[in-house]
Design brief:
This protein is α/β, with parallel strands linked by helices. It has 17 helices and 5 strands. It has helices spanning about 5-10, 20-30, 50-60, 80-90, 105-115, 120-125, 135-145, 165-180, 200, 215-225, 230-240, 245-250, 255-265, 275-285, 290-305, 310-330, 335-350; strands at about 40, 95, 155-160, 185-190, 205-210. It has a 5-stranded parallel sheet with strand order 2-3-4-1-5, with helices on both faces.
Length: about 350
């Protein structure tokens, strides 16, 4: 992982733009001594919710009581001890709650430590995690909160994300929200707050992050992927829907190129070349990453066709067919190449 790629990770990233309004809301609440003990940070994926949450956490953990009047923003120097401790997960008053590693994967970590070595970032990224945050995971928060801060300052619990909780863990976190310990701030990240327990939502102050403006996404792309050309930036930004995370993923996975292939093939009509179709299906089904990207981009193509007011009824029916095909392919373990072929041929018949 390069230094630029590492700096994009929320725990390492001290740079954020495009959310000045919600930042001011939080800062003013602190300045007026009216901080809520639980904050629900919501918005679409990839717009900086986790980066923003880490920014709030570092600010609170870095506060010095005798300098309260000196603070004018949430900035914390990357050279500060607080920034470094939060970044490497060693700050005693900061707790991150996220999906844990599967038991077999935890054993790999333990074995590496016993052998006197540690897994690097790339090796850790390859380890599989649980599909949910479990009630046992939440119990580690209770253990963390049972201990007082070493210097009487804030303790921060960051949940990334609360969407990953099952019923048991959601109820367990609700109990903490109902009676949060003194000088504790809970930061809950959610991509889809409407699906949360109403009682969780009602216990939190709301910080809703809006999709980033295209100019902001372009600026961030230039920062995190400085070697890409301007024409690719323009096309990627147009596809990303205000999400810098999605824009970066699109660049790293050649999404613009794949989307252009989808568009060209889908709009070729019934006269598509069989060789082109077979080559496309082979490419898209070659890896799980390609297949998942295809699922996203084909839905994007159909959405754009619907918005263009071109064959709305046919497009709506096709969208339902595509969605059903993806669900059926996964549940019945149907060959992905065959599913892609059926979808693309069906689309070619209506455009």
């Amino acid at each position: 992982m390069s230094e630029i790629e590492a700096s994009f990770e929320p725990r390492h990233n001290g740079y954020i733009i495009g959310h000045e309004d919600v930042e001011k809301m939080f800062f003013d609440a602190w300045k007026n001594n009216s901080l809520h003990q639980a904050w629900l940070i919501s918005g679409i994926k990839g717009i900086g919710k986790a980066t923003f949450a880490y920014r709030l956490a570092r600010f609170l953990l870095n506060l010095e009581d005798d300098k309260i009047n000196n603070y004018t923003s949430l900035d914390v120097s990357p050279d500060s001890q607080t920034f470094k401790q939060v970044s490497n997960g060693s700050h005693p008053d900061f707790k991150l709650l996220e999906r844990g590693y599967l038991k077999t994967e935890r054993q790999k970590i333990v074995k590496a430590i016993k052998d006197g070595s540690y897994l690097n970032n790339e090796e850790l990224a390859e380890l599989k995690k649980s599909s949910v945050i479990t009630v046992d995971d939440v119990r580690t928060v209770n253990e963390f909160l049972s201990k007082k801060s070493a210097d009487g300052r804030w303790r921060i619990v960051l949940v990334d994300s609360v969407d990953d909780m099952n019923t048991s863990s959601a109820n367990a976190i609700l109990k903490i929200l109902e009676e949060p310990p003194h000088k504790t701030i809970m930061l809950l990240i959610s991509h889809n707050p409407a699906r949360l327990l109403p009682t969780i939502r009602s216990r939190c102050a709301k910080l809703e992050l809006k999709p980033l403006k295209e100019g902001v996404v372009a600026s961030l792309l230039r920062r995190y992927r400085p070697n890409i050309k301007e024409d690719l930036i323009k096309k990627t930004v147009a596809m990303a829907g205000g999400s810098i995370g999605k824009a970066i993923a699109y660049v790293d996975n050649d999404a613009v190129q794949l989307y252009e292939k989808i568009y060209a093939l889908a709009t070729s009509g019934k006269n598509f070349k069989t060789a082109d179709m077979l080559k496309f299906c082979d490419e898209v089904s070659s890896t799980e990453e390609n297949y998942e990207l295809f699922k996203e981009l084909i839905c994007k193509f159909l959405s754009e066709q619907a918005r263009s007011l071109n064959k709305i009824e046919e497009t709506t029916q096709m969208f339902d067919k595509v969605t059903h095909t993806f669900v059926e392919t996964e549940s019945l373990n149907i060959d992905k190449r065959h599913a892609i072929m059926n979808i693309m041929v069906a689309i070619c018949r209506i455009y």
